[in-house]
Amino acid sequence: MSRLRAITDVLRISALSQSSITPGPDTPWSPLGSGKDTLRTELEKLYWEGVRAELENIIRTLKAWQQPEFSVVACPDEKDDLVHGFDTFIDQVSEKTRDFAIRYAKTPKRGETYERALEQAVRDRRAEYVSAKLKASVRGGIDSLPKLEGWEQRAWALLQASGLLDIEKVMEHRPPVEKLGTDKRPSIPQRTFGSSNPELRPLHCERPDCGKMITGSMFTSHGSQDPRVVCEDCYWQHYYGSDSYTKTYKHCVLQASITAEKSRELCSCNAVPHHDASGKPVSLFRVETEAKHLNNCRLLKLAELVPRAKYNGLLQTVDIKETKAVGIFSQETPAVRNGSVSETTRKKAWIPNLDGSATDAEADTNIPLFLRKFARKNPFGDVHMALRVGPLLIENGVAHTKAGALVTIRDMPVFHERFTLSSPRDRALAVAGSSDRTLWQQKRKAALPKRYKAVMKQVVGAPFTGLLRHEKEVEIVRDLLAASKLPFEEKDAILDSVLEGLGQQLKELMQGRLDVYLDSIASRLADPQTPLTWSATKNNCQAFCASLVDLNLFEPLSRAGGPGSSSYVQPKVRHKFDVPPGITDEYVQRFHFGVGQDAADILDTCHEYWHDWGAFAGGPPYPRYQTLFPWDCTEAFGRYPTRCGGSSSSSSSSSKGEGGGVGGCNLAKHVWAFPFDSFSFVSHHLTRDRYLYPPPPPPPSSSTSTSDPVKKQWTMTMMMETRLQLLRASTALARGAAAMSRTPAFHAATAWLHNSSSHLLLQPYLAVARAAKTGGIHRAQPFSHYFEAGRGGRYFLAEWALLWGGSREEQVRRYEALREERMRMVDVDVDEKWGGDAGGGGCAVVNCGSNCGSCSGSAAACVGGCASGDGGGGSACGGGGGDSGGGGSGSGGGGGGCGGGGGCGGGS
């Protein structure tokens, strides 16, 4: 098998010898001269053209929101100023806590001398004191940051969320390259009921010219003339924006398919009544825990039918014949099936035999062997990425762009809707891939909005975070609000004048920082040593993006693997003080095994946990925050007492509802559980129209007809409500990061992250710590890591999906019981690898920068830059820190934005 894959790799390299991966219009280009002489000037001109469009977009958003039908719309979280939940992140990036983690890992569990134990205890208490003092300083810094209210705060948040000095990697969707037909991409398709009962088969797109298996989200039509169900590719190509289609996440079909009548047909158990006391037929699905079903009851067999169908569907996507999987799905004991054992026993009691057809395993034993068979040597060779710098989008691999780099103005954020702007955005630049770096320009016609798989924040810029001159930013905010009240639709001259004035104000605020950005980017693009021409193996898109970011300026951090590395490494999380991977880390890791290409984007993939694997009736159990940030922010191992969706008390959060406020779960706490992912998710959401969200489920008491297409579409009011919540989340993240940037003690505590001589970086096992910036909490959310590695019997379906009661409340109750068990655990089970009993799941850990080379790449990971502390690189406005000039990073000089020369604002 290894010999066959070696031949396949050669074929892949030969097939991708062309200089582009993305189609582009073949329109004329006009030369502008040598890139060395003209690129820097033209980049700045294009940048300010983009800023003009960003400002117009914000003005039109504010104008729409102030219309009578929207002016009363509010978000409950807008008035919640409590920012908490960042304690774990501070511990992960602080030197004293890393020292403590090293000692903790080396400390013997028994047989230690009294003197040694006493010495360790003193050092640990000292580390605990320093950590508590540091967190208190950051909280004080948050309280000291300026605050605005009402419409001024909304305008401020719109400016901050626009990211005028942010840097991001954006991963665009691309269909599989036709020339890579031998490259298998295993995926679990959506299932639907067949003609026989019960039988589950893959759901196919119903467009006659497509017909492929649907492996991600889908769109359902309510019109009689259109195909009933289409895949996401066909929707984007043929129906984008159509009100007749609504989106549906990949989901478990049993709830909708097993009607009351079918449930009685499937059950022939004499001890289970099929009618109530009045003689009325009852539904037997979902199965009540007290029901006395026989072991061979076909209703109970659904628990085996779904995993078997998913497994067979997985085989079909890679053209392997379906199997009856004898012995694979029958290894659960009755005790496990009935829920009478702990999760620890459950996870060890049943391991699906996913490796039955594998013959060539990779080293990562935490990945199912079946998937390791499809491990790719060049996982990002055919993945298209671009680098966003403020309003500019820089990419390579686009056809008809002089075999070099293309620079355009990005699609504007969707704060309300996609407005038709008067500001021109059609000019594009191309830097030729030849050694002379000739610069060209053209006019490009507007195309469909870009479809992103993931957005990965690299740098959070300083503007409108609280780090720059507050009085100047407030002046801009008030002028924006005044402009939104003008009748500019009737007279373009009014809008032109307003935008010109606002542009000048922004130049006064951030020109010095912008110079640092553009000087660096332009020098890289104009340097003949920087390869621009796309190559699947030598200069793919993610390697190109990484090559444009100067580590000395934006992230003075030494990473194994170097810029653009696609190597795969599996650091292990051995105890509760190690750093587990974040959401984006795991999503990108899937590309190493061919899983990510045909799957949904990262937002929809996270929702599949709740809708498909978890089979929750009505979606996530705590939709207030999980609709936009679909994770459970509860921490394992007692690290933080607050439960997602509730309070910090020991009682079930479902009994208390979705709380907030002091001591409870609020939006800030929810997003700070995964700060890098949250920053990235905010940006990703802002690329989406309302059509790309499924309608919310009707309340249980609602009599609304589900067949009514009008009721199933998102309204503009709903869109505004979610956008206000996104802005509030962005504000909570920015305030926390800005406070860290302004805290000298935080600079000192995190200096080790960008000090190559630090003894901490010499510790071999701290490959995990390199992911500290992009990691997250130890999740109490059960089985929440994507690659559970078959370490539990519920790799394909949650245990509460079928057998735990007949209501959503029963599902949530069982889910919370498992979550509570994770919270009470003392530490990761020392007898298990990470991903065993207590690690929060079973995914192999991936160092986002040095392993996959794409998520944070060689640029700074977002919040990580806040941890970079002292700055570095060139001065933005002549050195200095604080609000007035270039440093923004306390004791450092150069380019510190939201935290110095590192990721969360490095160089801004």
* Uncertain ranges: 1-17, 324-361, 556-565, 648-663, 700-711, 760-769, 830-908
- Helix amount: 25-40%
**Beta-strand fraction estimate:** 5-15%
The major β-sheet equals: 8 strands, antiparallel
- Helix and strand composition category: alpha+beta
Region (Disordered): 178-198, 886-908
Biased composition (Polar residues): 189-198
Please tell me about this protein's structure.
The protein has 908 residues and is α+β, with helices and mostly antiparallel strands. The protein has a domain at 2-76 and 168-174 and 382-526. The chain is 36% helix and 7% strand. The protein contains 30 helices and 13 strands. It has an eight-stranded antiparallel sheet. β8 (384-389) and β9 (392-396) form a beta hairpin. α5 packs antiparallel against α6 (114-144) and α7 (150-162) crosses α15 (470-484). The model is unreliable at 1-17, 324-361, 556-565, 648-663, 700-711, 760-769 and 830-908 (pLDDT under 50).
Concise account of the structure shown:
By secondary structure, the chain is of the alpha+beta class. Residues 178-198, 886-908 are annotated as: Disordered.
Q: Any chance you could write out the topology, listing elements then pairs?
A:
Layout: H1 2-15, E1 30-34, H2 35-65, H3 68-71, H4 87-93, H5 95-106, H6 114-144, H7 150-162, E2 167-172, E3 191-193, E4 200-202, E5 218-221, E6 229-231, H8 232-239, E7 245-248, H9 254-257, H10 260-266, H11 302-317, H12 334-337, H13 343-349, H14 369-372, E8 384-389, E9 392-396, E10 405-409, E11 427-431, E12 438-443, E13 452-459, H15 470-484, H16 492-526, H17 541-547, H18 551-554, H19 583-589, H20 602-613, H21 623-626, H22 667-672, H23 675-685, H24 709-712, H25 716-741, H26 744-749, H27 800-803, H28 808-824, H29 848-852, H30 862-866
Antiparallel strand pairs: 1-12, 2-8, 2-13, 3-4, 5-6, 5-7, 8-9, 9-10, 10-11, 11-12
Helix pairs in contact: 2-7, 2-15, 2-16, 5-6, 6-25, 7-15, 7-25, 15-16, 23-25
